[in-house]
Amino acid sequence: MSLLTDLINLNLSDCTNKIIAEYIWIGGSGMDLRSKARTLSGPVADPSKLPKWNYDGSSTGQAPGEDSEVILYPQAIFRDPFRRGNNILVMCDAYTPGGEPIPTNKRCNAAKIFSHPDVAAEEAWYGIEQEYTLLQKDVKWPIGWPLGGYPGPQGPYYCGVGVDKAYGRDIVDSHYKACLYAGINISGINGEVMPGQWEFQVGPSVGISAGDELWVARYILERITEIAGVVLSFDPKPIQGDWNGAGAHTNYSTKSMRNDGGYEVIKKAIEKLGLRHKEHIAAYGEGNERRLTGRHETADINTFLWGVANRGASIRVGRDTEKAGKGYFEDRRPASNMDPYVVTSMIAETTILWKP
């Protein structure tokens, strides 16, 4: 194993200018991440300078066998925390050979919304709180839980410390540092209410970069859990019963909301979100009805509520925002398995572009 480790940790810059680029894309389910690597002649910092690539879409559920070629367009570059050196991770989106975005490419439409002059002028900021659950590999039961049984009730686990409260901290801290190394704007981590469940936060990030950063942060976490022999779940309600679900609360502000008088802008934006509640819920992740029950710090899926410091609301406004008269709000409805390209762009579209 020591020889394998030595080879994995080889520093290529000692002997060549060539680098390895790991191209990442989203598969046919809309949640499965795929990647493959290629050699480049030297370091690249601009995604537009990277070559397009292709893959077999019939093997990812994104193209028929008789016309299976799907083209990858490089969109964002991050440092590779696994290979290190000048090697890179490349977030891509997928197109037909004719240049049309394939149906599972949600980034393309999001980029159009964020490039709209009215949206660009508002400099939309996002902070996404990504919850997830770590499962034992062979039984798909949360790590730290007794096989076929349950731990003690919720209470001591949220931000808990100790071998009987925090399960998987080595994975969580490895992910935190790897994201910082990669250049992702990860802003924190914490243990969640259900044991074996954790959260990381990405942001504040501007516009389309919020989606790019969250997807690559998910990819890095998938790779780390692969190494650790643990299954990563983004299911919004992995364990039925009196256990918290997993969400992706999305914090949001525009320039107008951050400026003096912004609280009135926030209230108008929330009113518009309420008018499109059903459309947003439909786009906020599969299985969310199992999580948004009105219990466990959620609002019922069929009800739109907002309030100050209310974690049982659809939209929560912080006390600091209310006091300052400007700031941001938190959309608590998105599920942990939501597509950040869809959620971030839809919030911007509804609050900035949509006319009731």
Provide key terms for this protein.
356 residues; alpha+beta; eight-stranded mixed sheet; five-stranded mixed sheet; 13 strands
Could you explain how this protein is built, in words?
This protein is α+β, with helices and mostly antiparallel strands and 356 residues long. The protein is built from 10 helices and 13 strands. The chain has helices at residues 2-8, 107-115, 117-122, 169-182, 208-228, 255-258, 262-275, 277-283, 319-324, 340-353, and strands spanning 19-26, 33-40, 53-56, 69-79, 88-95, 125-136, 186-191, 197-206, 230-233, 248-253, 306-308, 315-317, 329-331. Strands 6, 7, 8, 9, 10, 11, 12 and 13 form an 8-stranded mixed β-sheet that branches. Strands 2-1-5-4-3 form a 5-stranded mixed β-sheet, with helices on one face. Strand 4 and strand 5 (88-95) form a beta hairpin. Helix 2 (107-115) packs parallel to helix 10 (340-353) and helix 7 crosses helix 10. It is globular and about 60 Å long. The mean pLDDT is 95.
Topology:
Layout: H1 2-8, E1 19-26, E2 33-40, E3 53-56, E4 69-79, E5 88-95, H2 107-115, H3 117-122, E6 125-136, H4 169-182, E7 186-191, E8 197-206, H5 208-228, E9 230-233, E10 248-253, H6 255-258, H7 262-275, H8 277-283, E11 306-308, E12 315-317, H9 319-324, E13 329-331, H10 340-353
Parallel strand pairs: 1-5, 11-12
Antiparallel strand pairs: 1-2, 3-4, 4-5, 6-8, 6-9, 6-10, 7-8, 10-13, 12-13
Helix pairs in contact: 2-10, 4-5, 5-10, 7-10
